[in-house]
Amino acid sequence: MSGNVWMFSDEIDDEDLEFMSHDYVTYNMACEYYRLGIKPVVRMAHEAGAVYKIGKKVLIRRSLFEAYLREQRKI
Protein backbone atom coordinates (compact mmCIF):
# COMPACT_ATOMS: atom_id res chain seq x y z
CA MET A 1 0.00 0.00 0.00
CA SER A 2 1.22 3.48 -0.75
CA GLY A 3 1.71 6.33 1.72
CA ASN A 4 0.61 5.81 5.30
CA VAL A 5 -2.46 3.77 4.47
CA TRP A 6 -0.84 0.60 5.79
CA MET A 7 -0.78 2.13 9.30
CA PHE A 8 -4.58 2.07 9.38
CA SER A 9 -5.10 -1.18 7.50
CA ASP A 10 -7.18 -2.65 10.33
CA GLU A 11 -9.65 0.26 9.99
CA ILE A 12 -9.99 0.29 6.19
CA ASP A 13 -12.93 -1.35 4.48
CA ASP A 14 -13.84 -1.91 0.82
CA GLU A 15 -15.50 1.51 0.56
CA ASP A 16 -12.27 3.20 1.65
CA LEU A 17 -10.17 1.22 -0.80
CA GLU A 18 -12.52 2.00 -3.68
CA PHE A 19 -12.55 5.71 -2.80
CA MET A 20 -8.76 5.85 -2.50
CA SER A 21 -8.41 4.45 -6.01
CA HIS A 22 -9.79 7.72 -7.43
CA ASP A 23 -7.58 10.79 -7.86
CA TYR A 24 -10.61 12.93 -8.68
CA VAL A 25 -14.10 12.58 -7.23
CA THR A 26 -17.46 14.21 -7.90
CA TYR A 27 -19.33 16.32 -5.37
CA ASN A 28 -21.76 13.47 -4.77
CA MET A 29 -18.99 10.95 -4.16
CA ALA A 30 -17.35 13.33 -1.67
CA CYS A 31 -20.66 13.95 0.11
CA GLU A 32 -21.27 10.24 0.54
CA TYR A 33 -17.73 9.40 1.66
CA TYR A 34 -17.13 12.31 4.05
CA ARG A 35 -20.77 12.32 5.20
CA LEU A 36 -21.19 16.03 4.59
CA GLY A 37 -23.83 18.02 2.77
CA ILE A 38 -23.34 19.39 -0.73
CA LYS A 39 -22.89 23.02 0.37
CA PRO A 40 -20.02 22.36 2.82
CA VAL A 41 -18.26 20.11 0.29
CA VAL A 42 -18.56 22.73 -2.47
CA ARG A 43 -17.36 25.53 -0.17
CA MET A 44 -14.41 23.59 1.21
CA ALA A 45 -13.38 22.26 -2.21
CA HIS A 46 -13.27 25.80 -3.57
CA GLU A 47 -11.35 27.05 -0.51
CA ALA A 48 -8.86 24.22 -1.00
CA GLY A 49 -8.40 25.07 -4.66
CA ALA A 50 -9.26 21.48 -5.53
CA VAL A 51 -12.06 22.13 -8.05
CA TYR A 52 -11.53 21.20 -11.70
CA LYS A 53 -14.15 21.83 -14.36
CA ILE A 54 -14.15 19.83 -17.57
CA GLY A 55 -17.01 21.05 -19.69
CA LYS A 56 -20.05 20.68 -17.46
CA LYS A 57 -18.42 18.09 -15.21
CA VAL A 58 -16.95 19.30 -11.92
CA LEU A 59 -14.35 17.18 -10.15
CA ILE A 60 -12.52 17.53 -6.85
CA ARG A 61 -8.85 16.59 -6.64
CA ARG A 62 -8.93 14.28 -3.65
CA SER A 63 -5.32 14.82 -2.52
CA LEU A 64 -5.73 18.61 -2.30
CA PHE A 65 -9.11 18.33 -0.62
CA GLU A 66 -7.88 15.88 2.02
CA ALA A 67 -4.79 18.01 2.69
CA TYR A 68 -7.13 20.96 3.27
CA LEU A 69 -9.30 18.90 5.62
CA ARG A 70 -6.24 17.80 7.60
CA GLU A 71 -5.05 21.42 7.87
CA GLN A 72 -8.47 22.63 9.04
CA ARG A 73 -8.55 19.91 11.65
CA LYS A 74 -5.34 21.26 13.22
CA ILE A 75 -6.78 24.72 13.75
From TrEMBL:
Instruction: One Pfam family, please name it.
Output: DUF6462
Q: Which organism is it from?
A: Blautia intestinalis
**Protein name in the entry:** Helix-turn-helix domain-containing protein
| Taxonomy, superkingdom | Bacteria
Alphabetical list of InterPro entries matching this protein = DUF6462 (IPR045591), Tn1545/Tn916_Xis (IPR038148)
